[in-house]
Automatic annotation (TrEMBL):
Residues 1-295 form the Carbohydrate kinase PfkB domain. It comes from the Bacteria. K(+) binds at residues 248, 250, 284, 287, 289, 293. Its cofactor is Mg(2+). It comes from Alistipes indistinctus YIT 12060. The active site is at residue 254. The keyword Cytoplasm applies. It catalyses: D-ribose + ATP = D-ribose 5-phosphate + ADP + H(+). InterPro entries: Carboh/pur_kinase_PfkB_CS, PfkB_dom, Ribo/fructo_kinase, Ribokinase, Ribokinase-like. Pfam families: PfkB. Its EC number is 2.7.1.15. The lineage of its organism: Bacteria, Pseudomonadati, Bacteroidota, Bacteroidia, Bacteroidales. This is Ribokinase. Activated by a monovalent cation that binds near, but not in, the active site. The most likely occupant of the site in vivo is potassium. Ion binding induces a conformational change that may alter substrate affinity. GO terms for biological process: D-ribose catabolic process.
Amino acid sequence: HIVVVGSINTDMTVKSGKLPRPGETVLGGVFFKNQGGKGANQAVAAARLGASVRMIAKVGKDAFGEESVASLAREGVDTAGILTDAEHPSGIAMILVDDRGENMISVASGANLALTPEELGAVEEIIRSAGIVLMQLEIPMPVIEYVARMAKQHGATVILNPAPAPKQQLPPELLAHVDILIPNQTEAELISGTAVNDYESAAAAAGKIGQMGVRTVIITMGAHGVFVYDSESGNSEIIVAKRVKATDTTAAGDCFCGALSVALNEGRPLNEALDFANRAAAISVTRRGAQPSLPYLHEMSTR
Ligand code: ADP
């Protein structure tokens, strides 16, 4: 099965004609409340695409947290590894989206940042039996490092989506335990120090990240698709994006990561998994919101 160790948030989204600038007020928006958090989004993406998914996370002892856990359970995600924190509120994300699907997001992480490696003893068995461990950067770095090390020890494939964009260099010991790193262009630039704006610069950035000890680097490039680099063989590949009308790119990366994990967990080769993820993410950008935009297996045509 797939184990997602990551964040759970409640997303409050306002969609309007344009994004406000600092100090500006934009009227005429429409409000949506949805389940979110990159961890939960990726867990739901994987579950909807047919995988057995277990989540390890932390929510507050409040209505938002209860609702989030119940929602994950309804999605078919095993929630036994989700801890409750009495001192911190559940995570919240405020999202603004414009007509073209561009977004701005501010997150109050709350309980997500109260997760500690010491608490993970209680859920160690879940990690030990994982085929794939999928993580993001919305939980404390010591937890991510600890889980990556433990997962590798037990033979799992460790996939890290370094999102949101890291403010500090990722620890080298962490990168050494990551099998597949999936940054978007901004994240790839922050990690490698090389600006990524086309396939050539993506190749340069991926090469540098490969030198940091990551086996496979997958840079997602929005409507330009993905750039993939295998540091062991030195091979690289470009997978163009599907042509779709994007209405809201929220959770496109989450969908991509969840879908890739599903295909790899089924034992499919990387190129097939990339195609699957690219197709799933393309569907997600045609729909509004985070989790509501994530496709189900039956929606995936084989084209
Ligand atoms: P993030 O949302 O994390 O910034 P990207 O914008 O790179 O990530 O999108 C992730 C993936 O979603 C892309 O690699 C691609 O597969 C798909 N995707 C994103 N935007 C589009 C688009 N406009 N058309 C088709 N696919 C898209």
